[in-house]
Amino acid sequence: MNILVMGGGGREHALAWAIKQNPKCDRLIVAPGNAGIAQIAECADIDINSRSAVAEFCEENAVDFVVIGPEAPLAAGVADALRNAGILCFGPSAAAALLEASKAFTKDICDACAAPTAAWARFDQANVAKAYIRAQGAPIVVKADGLAAGKGVVVAETVADACAAVDEMFAGAFGAAGAEVVIEEFMPGDEASFFVLVDGTDVLPIGTAQDHKRVGEGDTGPNTGGMGAYSPAPVLTAALQAQVLERIVKPTMAEMVRRGSPYQGVLYAGLMIHDGQARLVEYNVRFGDPEAQVLMMRLGAQVLDLLLACAEGRLAEVAVNWADDHAMTVVMAARGYPGDYAKGSEIRGLDGLPADSWQMVFHAGTRAQGGQVLADGGRVLNVTARAETLDQARARAYALAERIDWPEGFYRRDIGWRAQSPSGDTAQEE
Ligand code: AMP
Ligand code: GLY
């Protein structure tokens, strides 16, 4: 079959890499792709947020199946346009993508189905929001309602910081995303991510992960899109996963059906675990990046069968084949990220590296030019490895990273530290 993957980051490189290994995949196109993706697939330069451009491209190229990576095309209704055109597509409708595109929408749904989450209130006026903050006290969390490329959340330590965040959001720091602000109770605990496929009615768990959002070692410094991740996440025990499915994920999905917007695609539940109880932090309507890189490394070629079953409403018929393994990815970023950074430096040493089901360097922000690979973004490479234990996966990933010659880049040396027990062993869950 002819398959189109939409996106051009490390998540899409990992998705394309896994899909390509499945014998059902004949022709693989990725739009827009990057230098690493170009080595395994055709890259197409189309406007992936344009419903008509994507649908026309699929018709002209006899595309049988589309996998949408990022949230922007989902929120723009590209999955709806494809399904209207009779093209099989993995990813939720624009109406269902509101679970990521509007924080107030998600909180309403949680209230309607009694899913545990932080206490909250919504505001469209700064003075009312600030009065609420003063009444609640700090720490407290201020969020722009809409999509803000992962940056519209301020975890404020003081009332003054929270009020400043409210002013900034209403002053337009996040554009239309900040026209409404959600203020939430601060939840302490350990954060973890749970990924499930949903075909409208049935729900199939496909893995857990934890990422490291801060730029600095020891989880310090500014937030980023993610500096590394590992799977499984030992904190999400089998019992907790069952609790999250029964109390959070399934009730949410049933509420979406009740509202006439059944969910189809991957649902990424961001959770806070405290005292043996999980509460929802947020939903995303896509795979995490870099969490997808570790999930794809662990799932391999079966991913295509799972995504197809999801898109065709056949999840009840399939199961995940788990290996007893761990995967870890280390993000190599351009110096200066998540602040200002330069593009265009050359990355050497990629050619001779091993590339197999135990280790892969996925490309995020790269482009090819005259036989060279150049850095073309903030997060640039995802050095990913799989092994029987997390310690072995970590050793393998860092050994691979050391072979990459890119003086303009940097990476954290401590990815995975939170999953570590004093003995160096990690719990095996799943
Ligand atoms: P979000 O974009 O909603 O995932 O928020 C970004 C990050 O802010 C999350 O990954 C958490 O680390 C943190 N965060 C968001 N909401 C809360 C909350 N209610 N309590 C504590 N931390 C939060
Ligand atoms: N790594 C976090 C995210 O993809 O939202």
Tell me about this structure:
With about 425 residues, the protein is an alpha+beta fold. It has twelve helices and 23 strands. The strands form five sheets. Strands 10, 11, 14, 15, 16, 17, 19, 22 and 23 form a nine-stranded antiparallel sheet that branches. β1 (about 1-5), α1 and β2 (about 25-30) form a beta-alpha-beta unit. The longest helix has 21 residues, at about 240-260. It is globular. Residues about 420-430 have low confidence and may be disordered. Glycine binds near residues 226, 284 and 288.
Helix-strand layout with pairing:
Blueprint: E1 2-7, H1 10-20, E2 27-32, E3 42-43, H2 51-60, E4 65-68, H3 71-75, H4 78-84, E5 88-90, H5 98-101, H6 103-113, E6 120-123, H7 126-136, E7 140-144, E8 153-156, H8 159-170, E9 181-185, E10 190-199, E11 203-211, E12 214-216, E13 220-223, E14 228-231, H9 238-258, E15 264-274, E16 277-284, H10 291-299, H11 302-311, E17 326-334, E18 346-347, E19 359-363, E20 366-369, E21 372-375, E22 379-387, H12 390-402, E23 409-410
Parallel strand pairs: 1-2, 1-4, 2-3, 4-5
Antiparallel strand pairs: 6-9, 7-8, 7-9, 10-11, 10-15, 11-14, 12-13, 14-17, 15-16, 17-22, 17-23, 18-21, 19-22, 20-21
The structure holds adenosine monophosphate and glycine.
Residues 118, 141, 150, 153, 155, 184-187, 191, 270, 281-282 line the site of adenosine monophosphate (AMP).
